[in-house]
Sequence to fold (138 residues):
Amino acid sequence: TEARKTFEAQFAEIVQRTRSDIARQKAQVASLESSRDSLASQINKQSQDLITQQQLNREVQANTLLYQYFLSRLKETSAQQGIQKPDSRILSKAVTPSIPTAPHKSMILVMSTLAGALIGMAIVILGEMRQNTFRTAR
Fold:
């Protein structure tokens, strides 16, 4: 009986130890599952962040190329402006005339009158020359 009591005590102790080991293992499994879920969500977030970073890197590269293009065009334009500068300078400012220099209204009026008179005389003379009949004063 004493051996039996010793055996039962040791058996109960082994069962208790095994139960506590099982409880500890279940706690570890739960902890590992929560860690796994946490790590999976971190991986998903990091993959989304990586995609965003790659898109931003492409935008940076495109903007850099665009900036370099515009910078080179600016340098070319600046160089061309230096070449196209005139070799002249202002010696004195122009004087504003008191009377208009053009159009000469009086000369245009005289020339128009003379031209009208000449054209009118030419029409009359041509009209007289076309009539080749005799006429009387009446």
Q: What stands out?
A: The chain has a mean pLDDT of 90.
